[in-house]
Write a structure and sequence with these properties.
about 40% strand; globular
Length: about 150
């Protein structure tokens, strides 16, 4: 974490339906093809673990996690583009790994775009390994983009 991130300690808390507009605003700034507010609401309704990273009292990142039968799936992890590359993504990822473990997860899986080099480096540093490829998984301006599947024991 660099000096900017260490100047204050962000808080991580459970996501509630009231957070969805702020979370969606971050999602829309970060991605060309964002999740909809309905997807976030459906995840919370399904009982997935949503968390919010708060910086100075405002949402600045979030994660969505599903854990069942020993498998954890990191469905979404995003930091507001205005504060990326300051260590907040790794902070949130480590929190979600610990949460998945506490919920009985033995392995964690996630997908990432091959073009998202920063995320790929973060997952590699956190001990994730590439285990597969999902063809045409993500929408992209050129049609579709593959997803690299990562996994690690937790």
């Amino acid at each position: 974490m660099n000096a900017a991130a260490s100047e204050f300690l962000p808080e991580i808390r459970a996501m509630t339906p009231r957070d969805i507009p702020a979370i969606y605003a971050i999602e829309a700034r970060a991605y060309d093809f964002p999740w909809s507010e309905k997807i976030f609401a459906d995840c919370l309704r399904a009982g997935y673990s949503g968390v919010v990273l708060e910086c100075h009292g405002e949402a600045c990142g979030y994660g969505m996690l599903s854990v069942a039968v020993g498998e954890a799936h990191l469905l979404n992890l995003c930091i507001d583009p205005e504060i990326q590359r300051q260590g907040f993504g790794s902070l949130l990822l480590n929190y979600l790994i610990d949460k998945a473990c506490a919920l009985g997860g033995k392995q964690m899986f996630l997908e990432v775009r091959p073009s998202n080099n920063a995320a790929r480096r973060m997952y590699d540093k956190a001990g994730f390994n590439e285990i597969g490829l999902r063809r045409n998984y993500y929408r992209a301006s050129s049609g579709h983009e593959d997803a690299i599947v990562f996994a690690r024991d937790i």
